[in-house]
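Pinned message: reference record for SagB/ThcOx family dehydrogenase
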Amino acid sequence: MKNSEITEAINYHESTKHSYVSVRTSGHVLDWANKPHPFKVYEDLPRMSLPRDISLPTKPVFESFTQQPSSEKSLDLKTLASILYFTGGITRVVKYGMETVYFRAAPATGALYPIELYVVAGDVDGLEPGVYHFDPKAFCLTVLRRGDFRGFLSKHSNSAVAECSAAVVFTSMAWRNAWKYRERSYRHWFWDSGVMAANMLLTCNSFDLRCRLLTGFVDHEVNMLLGVDGVREAAVLVAAVGNSDKHPDETRPDVIEPKTRPLSRHEKRYPLIERMHMASCLYSVEELRSWLAAAAEPTPLPKPREHGQALNPSAEDGAPLWEVILRRGSTRKFSRTPITYDAFSTIVRKTFADVPTDYLGPVVSLFVIVNDVDGVEPGAYMVYDGTLVTVKKGQFRRVSGYLCLEQRLGEDAAAVFFPMAPLMNLLSRMGNRGYRVAQLEGGIRAGLMYLASYGLGVGATGLTFYDDDVKQFFTPFSDDLENMIVLAVGKPAYRARSGKIILDADKCL
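Predicted structure (tokens):
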């Protein structure tokens, strides 16, 4: 299978669409006794505790949407610990009967948390060069390799890695999410890593550290570096963090096969997911360079004939970023009361903050059903060049609920957002890997929207959707687009408690 054979991505996308019929005929029943363990545990490998007095990202949340990296600021272990915590650390521990749920700093589909974080460190004060796995439950690093492998990773991804203090590699453990969502869960690899990447980006911004998100890499080589098989667990994203003037060599690592505890008594594999992932892999440095050149081209997004109602974002800076991340949750019930136009405008603007990536973004357009926003007539809109362009006017609460798999959250929200991508254009330029980019950017934009919403005291929650019905509803603007993800925002119908910094989860039980 080749990345250029885009029938694979088309077939996967079409085969995993939700419809009114499909959700009623799946026959899928969850096997609760076989639910995957939420943490990856290594056997017989050394571990080192991370500092408990982590640095806090204290910059106001809305200032943190802008990157202002300092070329002179070095990355130390306390700051790295903070970046890992506010990206994937534990903020709440809740017991439901016999089950314990460890909620994290960033949301995840079904609270299953399939994304793991690895650190490829080369120039971090207080940390020896090496490859490490982050364990959020024990708040420690498991040592996988000793030595500086940034040069090897840079060769097989991007030159930015050779110039960073450390790279953080995101992987997805396929079964942890497929247990519930089956074939469609491949989309979630990128939604869930995307919202985590949004947290990481803002946390780095708060510390004035450079953070660049890299979607292009030679998959087999990166997976080999981490000691993962590329099927049951596979790399999905590389983040280059910080600056370094120590230029590493390209030493090739030995193959390792670290022993880990099983996630479940048995795992079910999904050939459609594995086929799609392998078809979107890059297999050589030459193929990577060609892909990066194609990814650097602009993505044509729909342009309405005229502008609409101008957005009017708030000028407030907001609470410190760390407080907002701890405050964030996924709203479980909206109050059906309006949000202000200032808040709505700020959420939209911050959702499309600049994101430093190895492809030229954005690759999504934002559509929204407005149910109850002060100063905006209820209806369906497209966001274009800082304005709201009318798609159709009317009260569409029941429609927004229906589009979100008939969930009440979609109906009760003040506004429901739909990031949509020109998928065929992305596939024609980037191959099957363009599918990863589209889904990832949907996740990143959703993550930014979460943080902007909670920075304003507005609730938010991610939802799934009836694919083709969403596309049809926003026609003709959406004729060449496919929906990636949904985020509903509004005032919660209850007062939620903020999370807290939990660095030893076992003590919370």
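Pinned by admin. Summary line: The mean pLDDT is 96.
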